[in-house]
Write a structure and sequence with these properties.
By secondary structure, the chain is mostly helical. 72% of the residues lie in helices and 0% in strands.
Length: 149
Amino acid sequence: MGTLIDDEGKQMKKLMIGFMLTVVTGSASLAQTNFYTNVTNLWHQGGEYRTNVLTIANERLAANTNDIAGLLLKAHYHAEFSEIEETTNAFSRVIQVGDTITTPNFVTCWQEVQSRQGILWFLDIMEKKPLTPQEIQDGKNKALIPHKP
C-alpha cells in the first residue's frame, strides 16, 4: 500500500494484506485454484503487471459487483499506487459488502481486528494525515518496483 501509512501503521498494513489474501484465497472456487498464484505472481512482478491485477479485479466485479475478492484487489491496487480518492471509495465498498456476507469463514475473518476495524483505521489515518503531492508521487514510483510485496 505504498506510503499511505507511516511506520506506526506497518503492522496494520501487514495484517490487512494477510486478511486480503485470506479472503481472496478463501473465496476462490475450485475452478480458480490458480487465482491466488496468478495474482501473487503478477503483483510481485511489479509495474505494468500490477495493472493486470486491477484488470482481474474489474473483470470479477463486472461479473458480480459484490465480489469481495475483486473489491479487495481493487482497493489494494489503488492504495499501492497512492490513488487516494479511489482507495477511499474502494475500501468503503469493501466494508459495505463485507458487512453483508454471512458465510461462517468470512464472518470469522471479518470480525478480527485486522479486517473490518483495520480498514476503518486505515481510512481514518488517510483522512487525518493526508499525503503531500511528493508522497503521492513517491508511492506511485514504489508501486512500480518489481518483487515488492
